[in-house]
Amino acid sequence: MDESSFRKRLHEALGDADLPPHVGDQTRRALRDASASKPNPARFAGAIAALLAIAIVAGLVGVNALRRSQTPVVLPLPAASSSATAPPTAQGHLLVFTTWAPDSKVGDGPEPGYRPLLTGLTGHDIQSISAGLSDIGVCCVLNIKFTPRGTDIFKALTRNNVAACGGAPAPGAYAVDCAQRHLAVWVDLTQADLDHWEDPAYVSSISQLFDLTCLARTSSTTVCPKFVSDPVTIAEIDSGNATISGDFTQQSANDLVNAINAESHS
Questions:
Q1: Which is it for the CA torsion 101, 107, 109, 110, positive or negative?
Q2: Model pLDDT for residues 196-207, shown as the tens digit of each residue
Q3: Helix 25-36 × helix 41-68 angle, to 10°
Q4: Sign of the C-alpha dihedral, residues 94, 111, 114, 241?
Q5: Sorting pLDDT into bands at 50, 70 and 90, what band is 182?
Q6: Contact predicate 189/116, CB 8 Å
Q7: Are residues 31 and 19 in contact, defined by beta-carbon separation less than 8 angstroms?
Q8: I need a labelling partner for 113 at 20 to 30 A (CA). Which of 35, 105, 168, 206 fits?
């Protein structure tokens, strides 16, 4: 840019407007003289120097003002790389609820003389599940919230269980217990398993405490433990919430919760 063009733009930009208060009188005069006077190399250079001075001072003022600010500046974190390795996903396993029906041919299992009956209530009817401590602080229990469909099924099952045999439900001084008051819980139990319930060896194996490692690599010739719990029903439950106790450690409870969630939400 030549001096004439510079003077013209400087005059248009400044006009009669007031300069910032930190610009000294000498600098003000130099700028206004430069915008109004005839071309003069020395004056032109002086105006350039004055503008640089304004820029430097303005920058220092801005830095100092930022330093005096007490408001923290929060910077956004960079987005996670799409190539980052995701944590391994738990293999899904289906929680299955059964009632008990009399069968004199059954001599083994959680309820000898009875075989399990599928109820239609499974992990697909669970809205949420978590592992936690019992009401007395003992590890561990499964805390379940059913879906609306699951709530209706569970309500009917618990109502029928309570009425299954005469007398007050357990526990209590005059409690009466029977297999039909129990609602058994299993992992991956199928009708094919129930068809083998008269086989003592089969029932003995499958009725052991669940083994997720075995179930993950099961084959047609492998009989894996699938039993979780066989709690007695002492009252009808219509809230849609249930607590299941069992022979859990913190790790086995967490592993089961992850496996149920992986299957229920798949």
A1: positive
A2: 999 999 999 999
A3: 140
A4: negative
A5: very high
A6: yes
A7: yes
A8: 168
Tell me the C-alpha distance between 132 and 127, whole Å: 17
Q: How far apart are CA 108 and CA 92, in angstroms?
A: 28
> Mapping DSSP to helix (H, G, I), strand (E, B) and coil, where does residue 44 land?
helix
Instruction: Find the DSSP H helices in the chain.
Output: 3-14, 25-36, 41-68, 148-162, 191-194, 200-206, 212-216, 250-264
DSSP annotation of 52: H
Phi/psi for 30 (5° steps) reads -65, -40
Q: For residues 212 and 90, give the distance between their C-alpha atoms in angstroms, rounded to a whole number.
A: 10
Percent of the chain residues topping a pLDDT of 90: 50
Q: What are phi and psi of 39, to 5 degrees?
A: -55, 130
Give the CA diameter of the chain.
120
123 φ, ψ (degrees, to nearest 5) = -60, -20
Closest to 132 in 3D by CA, of 245, 11, 265: 245
Domain range annotation of the chain: 3-68, 95-264
User: Distance between CA 160 and CA 236 in Å, rounded?
Assistant: 8
pLDDT in tens, 12-30: 444 444 444 544 555 455 5
In this predicted model, what pLDDT tens digit does every residue of 51-69 receive, in sequence order?
444 443 344 333 333 333 3
DSSP helix/strand/coil, 175: strand
Q: How far apart, in whole angstroms, are the C-alpha atoms of residue 62 and residue 201?
A: 83
Question: What's the CATH code, domain 95-264?
Answer: 3.30.1360.200
